[in-house]
TrEMBL record:
The lineage of its organism: Bacteria, Bacillati, Actinomycetota, Actinomycetes, Micromonosporales. InterPro entries: HTH_MarR-typ, MarR/SlyA-like, WH-like_DNA-bd_sf, WH_DNA-bd_sf. It holds the Pfam family MarR_2. This is DNA-binding MarR family transcriptional regulator. Residues 10-144 form the HTH marR-type domain. Keywords: DNA-binding. One of its GO terms (biological process) is response to stress. PANTHER family: MARR FAMILY REGULATORY PROTEIN, TRANSCRIPTIONAL REGULATOR, MARR FAMILY. The keyword Transport does not apply. It comes from Micromonospora taraxaci.
Length: 158
């Protein structure tokens, strides 16, 4: 069945939502680069969030992100190389290695949160605070109850 409004076909909604997401993420990463974090990429934010402040194993990280242990390990290798993560012995089990966020990684996460606040203010200045609030409220109403999931990389990758 065709869209009731040919000027607003149904397929445009997800594309516009993705375009808005992409705009925010691109603006975030441009500012992160200016603030001394040029190595961070969109995937890295998901990884740092999934590692969390308590750390995790590569296997658990892969499960949280919905990717293979090998893909998680490769991403961890890169983030260790540029100083955002570190590998340490697990104090509870000497056979395991934990991946932890370094101070540089925590700084990247902190700056990301501050930049997102700035970007939201910019959207509110352009569209109006009430409209941005309404967009957020409407998206919360339509999103599933577990909308904050870190397995987006695996979901996009198939």
């Amino acid at each position: 069945m065709a869209s009731a409004d040919p000027a607003r076909p149904g397929f445009q909604l997800p594309l516009l939502l993705l375009a808005g997401f992409r705009t925010l993420i691109d603006d975030l990463h441009a500012e992160l680069a200016r603030q001394g974090h040029p190595e961070l990429r969109p995937l890295h934010g998901f990884v740092l969030q999934a590692v969390g402040m308590d750390g995790t194993t590569a296997t658990e990280l892969g499960q949280r992100l919905g990717i293979s242990k090998q893909a998680a390990g490769k991403t961890v290798d890169r983030l260790v190389e540029v100083g955002y993560l570190e590998r340490v012995d697990d104090p509870r089990d000497a056979r395991r290695r934990l991946v932890r966020v370094t101070p540089r990684g925590a700084d990247g996460l902190r700056r990301s949160a501050e930049i997102f606040d700035t970007l939201r203010r910019q959207w509110a200045e352009r569209l109006g605070a009430e409209r941005v609030d309404a967009i957020e409220d409407d998206l919360r109403a339509m999103a599933s109850t577990n909308w904050f999931r870190l397995d987006m990389p695996g979901w996009f990758g198939g």
